[in-house]
């Protein structure tokens, strides 16, 4: 009887081991297949399934807390230092500077309900397999609108320490290409290491019709990726050398892009940051999407999304797309004869809820004020991700600057010296923040027209 029970127990154990082995093999095979695709669903067999379930549960409670306790109109230092801890069955979720990020989300025209719906829906997250050298894990919401990325403690400290000046930069330049950070969190699981992660707006959203994706650093060493076979559905993020011989064709929007890249990279230089990337993707415009500025009705709708310099992520009392226009402002019209500048329309031509923005030469005030007024006058497409989208004559471009946590430390200085010896006469990513900034600006200038 005992032998029979032992045999039965052994058989059960053997079946469990076999089942576990089959699962691992199945997962390994799927992972190998999905690694080529770069993106795959996190189902119950996935190694990150439990973690992403915790993320969803924790985020749902954190966002609900913001819904129930709206952030103040004026953010104080206390809001930037605030840490809120919420206990759950198997873990604790901590949210850093919650009111600050809620205020930023509001300024981007995003309601807390839609943010919660996207991050916490029943649909599984997607894992993105990156060719990044970092050990971070990348997840996407099922609708591909938001990225979640694990970060180390140093990177989180760096972001929180510089959060106020980051927000001030977005207030001054609401059309900044810098990635939009929407939340910073930490999961604490008993007897395991704490897991920090950030939520970001995806630069490549919506991605339904994207032809190609690039990660640009403005150098040549290790900046080539083998493209996917022609006609393949494989998602590959290409690099600088893959882009050679091509151009970003923007026509009249080119000066705006050059200046905004300069503004954003000089901001990162002041933070002593290097090794960030310019993400770039493109898709062809449909015929009815071309020359939208010539359509009067389209102009009015898009102008409402153009930036009013008074709008502010820091002082966002009312949810609005950056530059939401006060109803009592003057009217405007995009004049084809004034090089794309916004000029006052004829009385009665345009509804009075569209703001007047003048051309830089007529703006008055100091040059810095005129500069940011000029940068924040771009007409935005009617998308949920308008700040990272720029329309050229024939192509729609998705552009954003990401990975802004690498500081030029002593270790990086040593790496720079070593790479100079290893790659004489060639350009590589580990250089001083000033060199990195100027070189990326030069790349954009050389590859746009």
In short:
This protein has 449 residues and is an alpha+beta fold. It has 14 helices and 15 strands. The strands form three sheets. It has an eight-stranded antiparallel sheet. Strands 10-9-11-15-14 form a five-stranded mixed sheet. Strands 12-13 form a two-stranded antiparallel sheet.
Task: Describe this entry's structure for a reader.
It is a single chain. The protein is α+β, with helices and mostly antiparallel strands and 449 residues long. Helix content is 37%, strand content 16%. The chain has 14 helices and 15 strands. It has helices spanning 2-37, 49-68, 77-81, 98-107, 112-120, 153-161, 163-172, 240-243, 254-270, 296-303, 360-363, 367-375, 410-422, 433-446; strands at residues 39-41, 83-87, 92-96, 126-128, 138-140, 146-151, 181-188, 195-201, 212-216, 237-239, 277-284, 333-334, 342-343, 389-391, 395-402. The strands form three sheets. The chain has an eight-stranded antiparallel β-sheet with strand order 1-4-5-6-8-7-3-2. A hairpin with a 6-residue loop joins strand 7 and strand 8 (195-201). The longest helix has 36 residues, at 2-37. The model is unreliable at 19-36 and 307-364 (pLDDT under 50).
Enumerate the spans where pLDDT stays under 50 for 5 or more consecutive residues. 19-36, 307-364
Shape: globular
Q: How are the strands of the biggest sheet laid out side by side?
A: 1-4-5-6-8-7-3-2
The secondary structure category is alpha+beta
Global mean pLDDT:
81
Range of helix content = 25-40%
The tally of beta strands, per DSSP, is 15
Report the radius of gyration as a whole number of Å: 24 Å
Largest sheet, described in full?
Answer: 8 strands, antiparallel
Q: In angstroms, what separates the terminal alpha carbons? A: 84 Å
Order of helices and strands: HEHHEEHHEEEHHEEEEHHEHEEHHEEHH
| Beta-strand residue percentage | 15-25%
Instruction: Please work out how many helical segments DSSP would assign.
Output: 14
